[in-house]
Specification:
Bacterial Protein-export protein SecB; four-stranded antiparallel sheet; alpha+beta; 162 residues; 36% strand; globular
């Protein structure tokens, strides 16, 4: 019985583990360069969004993932506002192979962070007296797959060039 219990404990140590430790805003900015004149114009906005992720290994099995959402909204030719949020999280991740770890950091963690970033951005925009953006969900798995494919093609191109 004791032998089985110790084998079970050894297996649990080897089993993959994922735990969200903390979610926080790392950086936040808002600029409305044409205020207050922009509020007196007819509102016909065009929205441009830039999305980026980065990750950093911390001590032990802890990792920081930062999702950056940058939005520029123009009304006609004039910039109505520029808003950016860096939504970050600290994750405990253990027992994953390299491919699974890469996918977890590149797609799974940003999927967790996105709703927080979207809400923070909407709140910021509303405080600037503009309508909420209500950004559509993002498929980070598809973006991750596209990035992997792009990296593989770049590696193949470089290999054939030599």
């Amino acid at each position: 019985m004791t032998e089985q219990a110790s084998n079970g404990a050894a297996q649990n140590e080897q089993a993959p583990q994922f735990s969200l430790q903390r979610i926080y805003v790392r950086d936040l900015s808002f600029e409305a360069p044409k205020s207050p004149e922009i509020f007196r114009q007819e509102w016909t906005p065009s929205v441009a969004m830039d999305l980026n992720t980065r990750q950093k290994a911390l001590e032990g099995d802890f990792h920081e993932v930062v999702l950056t959402l940058s939005v520029t909204v123009k009304n006609g030719e004039e910039t109505a506002f520029i808003a950016e949020v860096q939504q970050a999280g600290i994750f405990l991740i253990k027992g994953l192979d390299a491919a699974s770890m890469s996918h977890t950091l590149g797609a799974f963690c940003p999927n967790i962070l996105f709703p927080y970033a979207r809400e923070t951005l909407d709140s910021l925009v509303i405080r600037g007296s503009f309508p909420a953006l209500m950004l559509a969900p993002v498929n980070f798995d598809a973006l991750y797959a596209q990035e992997l494919q792009r990296m593989q093609q770049a590696a193949q191109t470089e290999a054939t060039a030599h």
